[in-house]
Amino acid sequence: MAKTIFEQTGGTYTMQGDYCLPDLTLPAEEECPIGVWGQRRLRYLKQHHKILYYNLLTFGKLRSHLADVEQEAQSLFLRLVKEYAEREGMTEQLKADNPMEWVCRINNIRERVNEVVNAEIIFI
């Protein structure tokens, strides 16, 4: 009997009852740190873009995609928080004089920036 393309490329089969099933494995992916932004992107892909999720997963590019999204989102978040704080006059003097006011305002800025990052990077 002629070998199949799967067998010619080094693939093997395992007997499961009366059937021979191919031993399939996913390609190895490098370990990349994935933080909160990457986890949000992963959840979004699983729920709303299943085809893209499974394509990235089967080609072994999911973790690198999530790591890229994490890095891009983190840099955008930090840059926008800094810009918004400067634009709204958030100074170290305000932090020293009225810490509660400073915390309220910086938390407000962080939440607004969080929405921007989600809209521009995570949920696209």
Automatic annotation (TrEMBL):
<dbReference type="Pfam" id="PF14198">
    <property type="entry name" value="TnpV"/>
</dbReference>
<dbReference type="InterPro" id="IPR026989">
    <property type="entry name" value="TnpV"/>
</dbReference>
<protein>
    <submittedName>
        <fullName>TnpV protein</fullName>
    </submittedName>
</protein>
